[in-house]
Write a structure and sequence with these properties.
heterodimer, A: 193 residues, Arc Repressor Mutant, subunit A, 9 helices, B: 229 residues, OB fold (Dihydrolipoamide Acetyltransferase, E2P), 2 domains
Chain lengths: 193, 229
């Protein structure tokens, strides 16, 4: 079955179709499985099998709770929220902590974080991705979460607010504090290198 | 990562989305509890204000030695705790409404407090007196410290209902049901209603008390209907 004809339909429109016929759920799975898999990889260090299990559970929850989706939210914010909650449930189950485990070189993350943190001077090419990953893992979990959504998932403030269920003002505060903490750690690195 | 389409569709094959009404009921329930707790908090706050305003501040030094000691002894802790507890319950319920997370803690609490004050005003204007009567607040030991203070004849404080009066004596049943004969020959008497009196004086016998000052038990509450007219 191909769903080319539905390519132009928004997620919100597809959810309405899914409520009428389960087969349309494939469209949502196709659209989100890679993004969500990458997001899970970024915020956790579960192995591949665990990540796939989490992802499957996420889609089952999305399907079962489809009627609770509120159109005042973006569908992507809603599905990211469910994914995050599922990851947290699994952290509890396996007694693990949030950890940034993956930053892809092709993410263009370095340039985003350089401009986002006003660190053009501080971050030269010698500060590698592995180091940024290490530093990101050293900052507080709450700041780490918003920085991942902002710089890796490229979400705006409203989306981050809806995903994490915190006010937009708090998102802004966490981003500022997280950036400050990250900047300080990178500057220290440069000093003592 | 492998393509999970098939596995996911297999998993949901026999499932159905939960009915919309279940989510609506949950939302309505959370909203109802938010509002209910806010009303409870306002009620408790209204009673708290009533008790603070109607406290016998002018006798604080006689009763407790100092204003501060009297404040500590007579502060209606239980209503303060109810006010705060219901306010917090209302806040946490609101935070669990669909869009509750979008509002900052400061904004929600400020709004809640403003609503509480508005409701306090409404309650006090229309029928707080009935509530006070219904829960027998003025006579309740648990909900009102005042009674503990005023049923203390050894220290010179007595309160209760007047059952009979003549030129020299009052017959009084205190709020714990004990009969007293009050000598009022030297007493200064402020006009009182049938609700009761409080008496400052000395215990002179097992059932006898000499009054120096006789005052009405209840007072007018600032926000009460008559005040608004």
């Amino acid at each position: 079955m191909t769903f080319r004809e539905f390519e132009n339909k928004s997620d919100e429109e597809v959810t309405k179709l899914v409520l009428g016929d389960q087969k349309y759920f494939t469209i949502l799975v196709e659209r989100y499985q890679e993004k969500l898999y990458r997001y899970i990889s970024r915020i956790s260090n579960f192995n591949e099998q665990e990540k796939e299990d989490i992802l499957q559970d996420v889609f089952v929850k999305v399907y079962v709770n489809l009627n609770s989706f509120n159109s005042s939210l973006k569908f992507s914010s809603w599905i990211y929220r469910i994914t995050r909650n599922e990851v947290i449930n699994n952290f509890r189950k396996f007694k693990r902590r949030p950890q940034i485990a993956r930053i892809d070189p092709e993410d263009d993350f370095m340039s985003r974080i350089k401009s986002g943190l006003d660190l053009e001077k501080e971050i030269n090419n010698k500060v590698d991705i592995d180091y940024i990953k290490k530093v990101l893992n050293e900052i507080s979990d709450k700041y780490k979460e918003v920085l991942v959504l902002k710089f890796l998932e490229e979400k705006d403030y409203k989306e981050i607010s809806d995903i994490l269920k915190i006010p937009m003002g708090t998102v802004a505060t966490y981003i500022n504090r997280g950036k400050k903490e990250l900047k300080q750690k990178i500057e220290n690195y440069e000093k003592f290198r | 990562m492998k393509n999970l389409d098939k596995q996911i569709l297999d998993k949901i094959k026999d499932l159905k989305p939960k009915a919309k009404w279940k989510f609506l009921v949950k939302n309505y329930l959370i909203w109802s509890l938010t509002i209910l707790f806010l009303i409870f908090s306002s009620f408790a706050c209204a009673l708290l204000l009533y008790l603070i305003i109607n406290n016998d501040w002018e006798y604080s030094k006689i009763i407790a030695g100092s204003f501060w000691n009297y404040w500590v002894a007579s502060f209606p802790h239980i209503w303060f705790i109810f006010t705060v507890a219901f306010l917090l319950l209302s806040y946490f319920n609101f935070k669990h409404t669909e869009k509750g997370y979008r509002f900052s803690q400061k904004r929600v609490i400020t709004l809640n407090i403003l609503i509480i004050f508005f409701l306090v005003f409404v309650f006090c204007s229309f029928g707080l007196g009935n509530v006070i009567d219904a829960i027998n607040l003025d006579q309740s030991k648990i909900f009102n410290q005042r009674k503990v203070i005023w049923i203390n004849p050894e220290k010179g404080f007595l309160a209760g209902e007047v059952v009979k009066k003549n030129e020299n004596n009052l017959e009084l049943i205190d709020f714990e049901g004990k009969f007293w004969l009050i000598d009022i020959t030297e007493a200064h008497i402020t006009p009182y209603t049938e609700e009761g009196v409080k008496i400052l004086g000395n215990k002179i016998g097992e059932n006898t008390f000499r009054a120096k000052e006789i005052l009405p038990w209840s007072r007018i509450f600032l926000f009460e209907k008559d005040f608004l007219k």
